[in-house]
Write a structure and sequence with these properties.
about 290 residues; mainly alpha; MetI-like fold; about 75% helix; about 0% strand
């Protein structure tokens, strides 16, 4: 038992050592940590409530009182971006969680059993993959209606096929390994074998895809909110803030500049981190 724990700790330390060599990945990790802290302590960091209006201070350019300026209702843009980080990260993580659980299970069952089961599941995934992911998310969100819960479901369901294919490929490569055959010989059930022996050995590609998937989920959620199918006012969401400020972009460009920068920096950081994790978790790239 102690040997197993030490081995796991050794593997984790080796992965983190390789990750530290990638400066872009560490930069992305630092940004993600800052975003998480911002989302958790939004009530402390934000100087004003996200819905608090100061009508006399509407359309204020960035200044000492309002760091990022104010919108048409006099709401502090900095405070709304801070609270918006909580919404965006919540959508990103929960949507990816939905996709990982459902897609991972379907992929594991498909790869483990093969045959007709594999054919039925993968052809269903192919049908979903034939539809552009953003269009599928728009269709689901339009049918369910706007709102935070429906937005997470729409983004999560649209991401299921990619996780199913990744897990299926990993399961196909390890389902005939000696430890899996030994578990079968000892009488372990199929579900136990999948959950205890197969899925833990598929975690590396899942973690990488999930990291990149959070970035795509945040971007998709922002796009859906931009066209009115996501978070509804006055709840702050970066895409909805972009949509609200586009009518004033000529005279008050800061209303769209700062939410756009928040989206860009978050997506960039998550992509840097995902690429770094992919290299760190790939044993072929050990140096």
């Amino acid at each position: 038992m102690n040997v197993t724990k030490k081995k796991k700790r050794g593997n984790l330390s080796e992965i983190f050592r390789r990750l530290k060599k990638n400066r872009l990945a560490m930069f992305g990790l630092a940004i993600v940590v800052v975003l998480l802290i911002t989302a958790i302590f939004a009530d402390v960091i934000a100087p004003y409530g996200y819905a608090k209006q100061h009508l006399r201070d509407a359309f204020q350019a960035p200044n000492g009182k309002y760091v990022f300026g104010t919108d048409e209702f006099g709401r502090d843009i900095f405070s709304r971006i801070v609270y918006g980080s909580r919404i965006s990260l919540q959508v990103g993580f929960i949507a990816v969680g939905i996709a990982v659980v459902i897609g991972g299970f379907l992929g594991a069952v498909s790869g483990f059993y093969g045959g007709r089961v594999d054919n039925a599941i993968m052809r269903s995934m192919d049908i979903l993959l034939s539809i552009p992911q953003i269009l599928l998310a728009i269709a689901i969100a339009a049918s369910l209606g706007p709102g935070l819960f429906n937005l997470m479901i729409a983004v999560g369901i649209s991401s299921i096929p990619s996780y199913a294919r990744i897990v299926r490929g990993s399961v196909l490569s390890i389902r005939n390994q000696e430890y899996v055959e030994a578990a079968k010989a000892m009488g372990s059930g199929d579900i136990r074998i999948i959950m205890k022996h197969i899925l833990p050995n598929c975690m590396a590609p899942i973690i990488v895809q999930a990291t990149l998937g959070v970035a795509f989920a945040i971007l998709t959620a922002a796009g859906l909110s931009f066209i009115g199918l996501g978070i509804q006012p006055p709840v702050p969401e970066w895409g909805a803030m972009l949509s609200g400020g586009r009518g004033y972009i000529r005279d008050y460009p800061y209303m769209t500049l700062f939410p756009g920068l928040a989206i860009m920096i978050t997506i960039l950081a998550l992509n840097f981190l995902g690429d770094g994790l992919r290299d760190a978790l790939d044993p072929k790239l050990k140096r």
